[in-house]
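Handoff note, outgoing to incoming analyst
You'll be picking up this chain. Sequence as last confirmed:
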Amino acid sequence: MALRLPKVKDAAERADPETARTAAVALLARRDLSSGMLRERLRARGFTAEAAEAVVDALGREGVIDDARYAQNYVMYHSGRGQGPLRIGAELRKHGVAAALIDRALAQGTDWLALARKVRSAKFGPAAPRGWAQRARQARFLQYRGFSADHIRAATGADAELE
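Most recent structure output, in case you need it:
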């Protein structure tokens, strides 16, 4: 049974930082959120922008929310599911994570070229694509998954220079 947070009803609750903090902690107990996402969810619950901002800032100072940690976890999870850096970066931008944090998280750990090859061979088999039609089909798939043109060329065998 899912716990539902009620929307705030009166003006005093909307501006109360303690009520906003309680709602924020309840949201964070369910899943990790970026500061931008938490701010949006608090505003959707009816809290004022000032109350939401104060709570997000306080939780950030306490280390409860950390956008760098969120970005690293997000990259690790989604790269493990076979998604590429372009798609992951776009999603993190939608979640309100700073560009510098996204770049740092994408640069750490994952070998995107090897992942593109792995994803391509898992979907289409280990044999290289025969002909431009197969190569184009596989390239569209990898592009949808969020890999760059360089990764796609290397994974489909179109660019022997990157091998």
